[in-house]
Write a structure and sequence with these properties.
Layout: H1 2-10, H2 12-15, E1 21-23, E2 27-34, E3 40-48, E4 55-61, E5 66-70, E6 80-87, E7 94-105, E8 112-124, H3 127-133, E9 141-143, E10 147-154, E11 158-167, E12 176-178, E13 184-188, E14 199-207, E15 215-224, E16 233-242, H4 250-254, E17 259-260, E18 265-271, E19 278-286, E20 292-299, E21 305-310, E22 313-314, E23 319-326, E24 335-344, E25 351-360
Parallel strand pairs: 2-8, 10-16, 18-25
Antiparallel strand pairs: 1-3, 3-6, 4-7, 5-6, 7-8, 9-11, 11-14, 12-15, 13-14, 15-16, 17-19, 19-23, 20-22, 20-24, 21-23, 24-25
Length: 361
Amino acid sequence: MKNIFLILLVFPLLASAQASVDWNELVHDFGAIDERDGNVTCDFQVKNSGIVPVAIVSARASCGCTTPKFSTSPILPGETSTVEVTFDPIGRPGRFDKKVKVDISTGGDDQNISTSLRIKGVVVGDGATITQRYPQGEGPMRLRSTVAAFGSVKNTRHGSAMIEAYNNSKDTIWPHWEGLPEYITVRLNGALFIAPAEQRTIMLSFDGLNAPDYGLVTSTFTLYPDRGESNPITIDAVAMVQEDFSMMTPTAKAKAPVVATESGTIEYGTISRDGGLVTGSISIYNRGDNPLLIRRAYSNDPGVVSVTVTPEKVKKNKAATLTVTVDPTQLPSELLNARISVITNDYQNSNLILRAVGDVK
């Protein structure tokens, strides 16, 4: 910087003249590079095409994987300088597109010439990196996960989920899916295909309005990486469907049903593993004015614990009976600790959680 100001002092009239620069290229395409080969570098050359000295004062990359190097020495009219840009592909399989912003000082009134340089290409991933980042799937497609987790979805809205995919082949692939439930839609972000060594995102949408039930909703469908039906991948979709109470008026809230129980636990005591099915029950009360609607009652272990409730509509100060049946032969340990979900139209406690507990001998 000291050299720049010395020159500008010697040429005060030139410093106010118009500066101009030309680049040999603004975008450099590395093409396909192998992750195992390590760093790649390209040179962007800039020529001072004006009549005053200029100098590169900064070069900032958009990502830590990209490193620019440059000289701050003055570039006299007609001379050139170089911005060297290095990209580190380690751990970054797939396409990349990075920017480097370069500022060139003209020496007058703090006016800089700013230029955006780009490097792009595709990293062919090392086998170990691909397995680590995309551990699921076989054949040409690898996935970050085979679970589409939608989280909580209101019954009047849509939920979304994403699954990251990678084309682990040298050919373009055309993914497709079969067996989708009517309340889930799937699309590939961008084009309908995935180029070799390219990362893409599979976008999923969950329609809460058409969901089959309240509470935990699970389903599966099949993802095929390419044309045909080879290398199928099973995708599990999971959502928690909740009733939307956002439009309730203050009057409706004042008269809303209120779910209540005398205890949050169904005690079975000691259960004989060979003694056959055992049942327990608990009363579900409505302490509000309007009828309590029991939307659903279920256990997360349906093969071990089954749940029934009657009636499903409970008037003010009345009760429903929740019956829980346990098959001791299917219990994985000597302890019963099952979670029971009771979904109701109580806007303050729409998912009542109970426990069924006991010792298995």
